[in-house]
Predict the structure.
Amino acid sequence: MSQNPVRPRRSVLYVPASNDKALAKIATLACDAVIIDLEDAVLPAEKAAAREKLAGILANRPARRCEMVVRINALTSQWGADDLAAAAACEPDAILLPKVDTARDILEAGDHLDEAFVPDEVKLWAMVETPKALMNIGAIAELGRDAASRLSCFVAGTNDLVKETGIQATPDRRYLVPWLMQMVLAARAGGVDVVDGVFNHFSDSVGFARECAEAAAMGFDGKTVIHPAQIEAANAAFAPSVAALAEARAIAGMFALPENAGKGVVVLGGRMVERLHLAQAEKLLAKAAGIGA
């Protein structure tokens, strides 16, 4: 499996690279990651100017622990190659590739980074937003098992999936759920994280909280957000609960006892607990440590 470190990605905020006012607020926000967007949020006439601002934006990245990711335009577009080169030169934590259809798209971007001698610490994230991506999701996720691919996270592009497939975007996302679960399953098989798509009605806090809770129950690591007002609810929904943390500590403590050394199964609170539960507990505790819980 991938040896990517456990990093909290509960709230991942999109910020247009062309929006100076929004960029100025990044250091004050409690999101786990920020996506500096050169793609959908930037008009064609502004894309070159937005790209030129990348170096300054990333040079002033927040001192606190916050992942800085750059979403470029598709490599097949007229802006993609220049975006990738500019982003790579700034060495963000990750580069988010839109319109990924096949594993080859990830490998080609990785080849560009390798040829430019970009450090291995610069990872690749992939938007899952096309029917082709869903058809090829297993092969794409498999790259997560190879550190050389740089792949570390999937991002659900739910708006694009709705557009490309013609399904109805109902409040309960009933027609999207099968594909969302497919993303989670593939991400787990490949050892990469996966964050849910955006909730468009940012003034509907109740609906957003409900969708976050459902996404957390589906197994997502976090949610992409489009407004700072959504950050707090996302952080709460995707953080380990007090009860879950207590159970994880109890499991880890039980297996740490000298008399349980080498045991595959122990009894805790009247139930059998296996080492697979220990692995889950350790991952949860590592996530909690990452967010200071």
About this structure: Strands lie at 11-16, 33-37, 67-71, 94-97, 123-128, 151-156, 193-196, 222-225, 265-268, 271-274. The radius of gyration is 20 Å. Residues 275-291 form the longest helix (17 residues).
